[in-house]
Specification:
Oligomer: single chain
Structural class: alpha+beta
Shape: globular
Order of helices and strands: EHEEHH
Strand order of the largest sheet: 1-3-2
Mean pLDDT: 91
Low-confidence stretches: none
Helix content: 10-25%
Largest sheet: 3 strands, antiparallel
Bound molecules: iron/sulfur cluster
């Protein structure tokens, strides 16, 4: 059994994703949030997702930044692989971002991993 079986909102962690990156060539904000040139709009995100063979779909601009005099946006993404039961429909093939996701390090309030960590359990 996984702590996810106790989750009050299964799949919360797979909705409204915001990507981070430490890859050379990617532009990021100071906290590692991946950002895209504002003037390229949603196409910059689509292009990145396709190039990296990710399943995500951009939903909306999450936040705007100015970096070295240029405007950038971070984007919230949803994932079509997320099942109605809140489970991943492509668990074995999920992207690197999903594999590296550490629920206990997020501040996702409903996440059981986060709750357990916040009371010193993990
Ligand atoms: S990782 Fe956290 S938010 Fe996601 S399903 Fe599991 S317990 Fe819920
Ligand atoms: S691929 Fe799976 S783990 Fe990754 S965001 Fe989509 S549903 Fe969640």
């Amino acid at each position: 059994m996984s702590l996810c079986d106790l989750c009050p909102d299964p799949g919360y962690c797979c909705r409204g994703l915001v990507l981070t990156s430490d890859k050379k060539g990617d532009v990021t904000a100071k906290d590692g949030t991946l950002v895209f040139p504002a003037e390229e709009g949603i196409w910059a995100v689509h292009d990145y997702i396709e190039r990296h063979k990710m399943p995500y779909q951009p939903v909306d601009i999450e936040r705007s930044y100015r970096i070295n005099g240029r405007k950038y946006n971070s984007w919230t993404l949803n994932c079509p692989k997320l099942g109605r039961d809140g489970r991943c429909g492509a668990y074995e093939d999920r992207p690197e971002n999903c594999r590296n996701f550490e629920a206990s390090t997020t501040k996702t309030p409903t996440c059981v991993f986060y709750k357990v960590k916040s009371i010193g359990g993990v």
